[in-house]
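tmp note - ATP-binding cassette domain-containing protein
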Amino acid sequence: MTTIQVCELTKSFKGTTVLNQLNFTLTNGVVGLLGRNGAGKTTLMKIIATLLRQSSGLVMIDQAPVTNVRQVRQMIGYLPQNFQIYRNMRVVDALTYLGLLSELEPATLAQRIDRLLIRLNLGKYRQYKIKELSGGLKQRVGIAQALLNEPKILIIDEPTVGLDPEERDNFRRLIGELGDQRIVIFSTHIVEDIARISDQLVILEGGTVAFAGPTATFAADPDELETKYLALIRGGSDEGF
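out:
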């Protein structure tokens, strides 16, 4: 069981506090990270992924502080919101290149790529160029690169933006499956994207934690989750979403 502990986490940029004394604990499963645009979701994920340094407080992954960058990065896979990959490279070549940059041993890397392409239903696209793929398929390639190091924690930032309804539904289903054996932090401002697949919920509002805990504690079903979420965030106004 993997654990993320966030204790009094604060992050400021040029005198502006973006995250203010966050406290929560996460364990295996899908974690829905909800909040309107600008609530601090991406900043929080980048701190957990060691891409930003907190101003104060602690973030611990299995008792290792995220300031131990090399150790923690071996446990994390990250798919940023604006994932860019080499458009003219073939899928298998792009994954191979990214794996070698991560210092994976070539034979092990080849086996993992083959396994992931099958697992993510990308097998028939291995020789396609990235630019030939749909938005949903590109996101699956992004998931594949994030899983190359077999991470304990998978962090995915707003992955359904720009996808059509069918691709969004397929991608949500995939995220739910990936949470069986690890922590999957799935950031979104769209309640529908996490209502049916999240085991745990963290809601940020104005850089603070409005709720953190089991999804079932917050709401009994997806419809109630959306209603209570909108009521929690500024009295139910959906302005700015």
